[in-house]
């Protein structure tokens, strides 16, 4: 297993490091002036697949993206620990949720006003019935106006004129007040349902991550964060959002509110958070939320989802200039996913894609035979700056004699020889070798399609 690890400037190398994939721009160090394109090499911009001299010269001033070999086993994820608790812990959680249910919504001002007016009118009618109609016990003087108000009583045709007039008045009062009663009851019930679905964070929560937007992207980010030790607060205004159920399942504090509304970010304790991820599909709303969060907590680290990549770059530069002490990232999901989709549709043997600031690196496996840029060259000589680097060398798959032995032949070759992930720089690549390469999009075009760059592009 391998992963890309971002190392800050001056960080010493580790025994598990394979190679440096990129030297990051000054933007990685929160320098607003250093936000160049990842495809454009330069002293201040991101440089993909740099040579050794460039890495040595910039290792103390710029961050690096290093390909690291993962050799240890991870501890059980917090998500497993959360969902695998005892029944006693589950019962305690249920009791706590019941104790924190928002019963006060049924005592809202509108509900009290409507039911109070209804009670006052019924009491007045009961008093009039008891005083002016035929003598009745006090309970019957209250019971009859209630039946008349709710149109459940029999017509008082055989009773006195006062009783008949009181019945008509009670019926008219019912027609006017009952719709208000129903609306107040339904509104209170809906408010109770929405508020009970909320799981606000505690007043002592600090150093957490706030996620706004629990759609497809937000749900995947939330699931990934739940496998770490980070504390998370989720916000989404849609109770049926894709990630709302996941947040409840994982015990993540959840606010079903509009993050752009006043006070919602304060409920998420944005002033005490370490990071904010704004991942809704509305670019304008994302920008509004980030600006509101910056006003409340100027030092919060921000990752923002924007559709247009050029607009995302402009927003990133502007926010870094406005808040130089805070880390800001704005990314276009479509731009990050485009290389993977393009590589898959063109039939290239791409093993994976790794985003690097505003660019990306692709990992591919090719046979050396038929590639003059690789065949007959050493691992060191086959390296081409900003285009590709040899990561591993193995034996090429033996051509199968039939379709049934295709998979077995490949497994035998890989099982017998595998790949050497630390090949000697002087090792010469032969026609029977297969190599794993880290490439840029331009480098992959050269290797697969034989597209040679223009000399002017090569010099840039």
Strand content: 15-25%
Widest sheet: strand ordering: 7-6-5-8-9-10
- How far is the first residue's CA from the last residue's CA? 34 Å
Structural class: alpha/beta
3D structure, described in words:
This protein is 41% helix and 17% strand. Mean pLDDT is 77; it is low at 27-43, 74-86, 400-417 and 456-460. By secondary structure, the protein is of the alpha/beta class. It has helices at 52-58, 78-83, 87-99, 109-132, 138-149, 161-197, 216-225, 244-250, 264-267, 283-296, 309-322, 333-345, 379-382, 406-416, 441-449, 455-459; strands spanning 2-7, 17-23, 47-48, 64-69, 209-212, 232-235, 254-255, 275-278, 301-305, 328-331, 350-356, 359-367, 388-395, 419-420, 433-439.
Features of the shown structure:
460 residues, alpha/beta, six-stranded parallel beta sheet, five-stranded antiparallel beta sheet, 16 helices, 17% strand, elongated
């Amino acid at each position: 297993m391998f992963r890309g690890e971002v190392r800050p400037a001056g960080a010493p190398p580790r025994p598990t490091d394979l190679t440096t994939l990129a030297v990051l721009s000054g933007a990685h160090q929160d320098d607003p002036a250093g936000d160049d394109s990842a495809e454009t090499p330069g002293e201040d911009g991101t440089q993909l697949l740099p040579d050794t001299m460039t890495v040595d010269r910039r290792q103390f001033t710029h961050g690096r993206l290093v390909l690291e070999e993962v050799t240890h086993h991870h501890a059980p994820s917090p998500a497993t620990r959360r969902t695998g608790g005892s029944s006693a812990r589950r019962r305690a959680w249920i009791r706590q949720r019941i104790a924190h249910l928002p019963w006060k919504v049924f005592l809202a001002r509108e509900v009290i006003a409507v039911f109070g007016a209804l009670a006052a009118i019924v009491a007045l009618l009961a008093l009039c019935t008891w005083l002016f109609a035929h003598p009745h016990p006090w309970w019957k003087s209250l019971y009859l106006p209630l039946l008349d108000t709710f149109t459940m009583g029999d017509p008082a045709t055989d009773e006195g004129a006062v009783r008949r007039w009181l019945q008509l008045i009670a019926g008219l009062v019912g027609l006017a007040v009952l719709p208000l009663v129903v609306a107040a009851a339904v509104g209170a019930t809906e408010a109770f349902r929405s508020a009970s679905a909320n799981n606000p964070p505690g007043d002592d929560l600090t150093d957490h991550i706030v996620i706004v937007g629990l759609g497809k992207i937000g749900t995947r980010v939330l699931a990934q964060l739940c496998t770490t030790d980070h504390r998370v607060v989720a916000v989404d205004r849609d109770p049926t959002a894709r990630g709302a159920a996941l947040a409840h399942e994982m015990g993540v504090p959840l606010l079903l509110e509009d993050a752009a509304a006043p006070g919602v970010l304060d409920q998420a304790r944005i002033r005490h958070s370490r990071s904010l991820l704004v991942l809704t599909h509305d670019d304008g709303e994302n920008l509004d939320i980030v600006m509101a969060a910056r006003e409340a907590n100027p030092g919060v680290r921000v990752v923002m989802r924007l559709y247009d990549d050029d607009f995302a770059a402009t927003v990133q530069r502007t926010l870094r200039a406005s808040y130089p002490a805070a880390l800001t990232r704005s990314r276009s999901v479509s731009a990050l996913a485009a290389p993977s989709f393009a590589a898959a549709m063109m039939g290239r043997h791409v093993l994976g894609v790794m985003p690097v600031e505003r660019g990306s690196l692709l990992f591919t496996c090719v046979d050396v035979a038929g590639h003059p840029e690789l065949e007959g060259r050493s691992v060191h000589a086959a390296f081409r700056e900003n285009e590709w680097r040899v990561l591993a060398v193995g034996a090429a798959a033996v051509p199968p004699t039939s379709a049934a032995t295709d998979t077995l032949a490949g497994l035998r070759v890989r099982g017998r020889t595998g790949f050497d992930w630390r090949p000697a720089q002087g090792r010469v690549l032969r026609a029977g070798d297969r190599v794993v390469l880290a490439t840029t999009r331009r480098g992959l075009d050269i290797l697969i399609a034989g597209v040679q760059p223009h000399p002017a592009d090569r010099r840039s």
